[in-house]
Amino acid sequence: CTCHSQTVIFNYMKFNPYIKDSILISKIGLGAWQLGHDSGWKSMTKTEAVHLVHSALDVGVNFFDTAPNYGHGTGEERLGSALRKVDRSTIVINTKFGHTHTGSLNYSADHIRTSLEGSLKRLQVDYVDSLIIHNPPSAYLDGNKNDHYEILEKLQHEGKIKAYGASLDTYADMKLLMDTTNSKVMETFFNIFHQDTRCGFAQAQKNEVGIIVKIPLDSGWLSGKYNAKSTFTDIRSRWSTKDIEIRAELVTKVKTITGTEVNLAQMAIAFCLAYDAVATVIPGNVDVNQLSSNVKSTDIAITPSILEKLEHFYQSEIKELNLPW
């Protein structure tokens, strides 16, 4: 798909195509997980959340990714409040279905419309640009065996969504979704340490599917701020001591490839953006300083040599480790 080679500069930001009938979207998007109250990472007040969204707008960010379960609905509510006076035609909003605002899971096809209506109300909008199934079990991605996609088509026809798809973690799931549905959006787990989904990029481009990259910094590891002695008390406490030691060693090896003088976080985001199939990357911006640093990633051009070395590093040393998320 040659359209993915377009790039437009506005303010500090560069833009890419996303989906049919959509405006171009910022290469750096704002993931809204952290906007919600008691988000599981760093709780944020409503004032801080609104300020972060407005700061994002100021540097040209126009893509916002959210979900009903972010802060038990407060993530969507705060994003809606922050964007209430913004021209709707100038922003792109992606939300999800499956993880509910009460904290439960409900992937039932009968719940899609109810979930979307709740999101629209909290976001204070009449439509979302894309609605994706939120990290479902693989069985839900088969369009030949589920009623979900017929309902999503109806919502698209009604103008309540422009496109639909899924958030997923593996190439196998990407292929299943693209082979059996008319999905035009995928939010994929992709970073230097997790490159399996790269195998689906060519088909995504052929099918004109917009790719949102999630977890580009591997939950902070590719920011370079952690080491083998790091400990975690939040959601990242899932990692064992051995997991931490392995990741610390891998970070050191990445630095030998990219050069210790570069900003590792910016390089890691630039790595994701080096692929034409990627429309936008949503790092976890928890404050304005992180947002500003992440935006600067768009100025980094990774050389073909470095890109090849990072791909080889994954294939030769990381892939067989099956690193836990």
Main attributes of the structure:
disordered N terminus, single chain, alpha/beta, 8-stranded parallel β-sheet, 3-stranded antiparallel β-sheet, 325 residues
Provide an overview of this structure.
Helix 2 (74-83) links the parallel strand 5 (63-65) and strand 6. The chain has 325 residues and is of the alpha/beta class. Helix 1 (46-58) packs across helix 2, helix 2 (74-83) packs across helix 3 and helix 7 runs antiparallel to helix 10. The protein is 34% helix and 15% strand. The chain has 10 helices and 11 strands. Mean pLDDT is 92; it is low at 1-10. It has helices spanning 46-58, 74-83, 112-123, 148-157, 171-180, 201-206, 241-258, 264-273, 288-295, 304-318; strands at residues 8-10, 13-16, 25-26, 30-31, 63-65, 92-97, 128-133, 161-168, 185-189, 210-214, 278-282.
Number of helices: 10
pLDDT < 50 runs, ≥5 residues:
1-10
The secondary structure category is alpha/beta
Strand order of the largest sheet: 4-5-6-7-8-9-10-11
Task: Let me know the number of strands.
Answer: 11
Cα-atom Rg, whole angstroms?
A: 19 Å
Main beta sheet: 8 strands, parallel
What is the average per-residue confidence, as pLDDT, rounded to a whole number? 92
Cα end-to-end separation: 31 Å
Helix percent reads: 25-40%
**How does the overall form come out from the CA principal axes?**
globular
Order of helices and strands: EEEEHEHEHEHEHEHEHHEHH
Strand content range: 15-25%
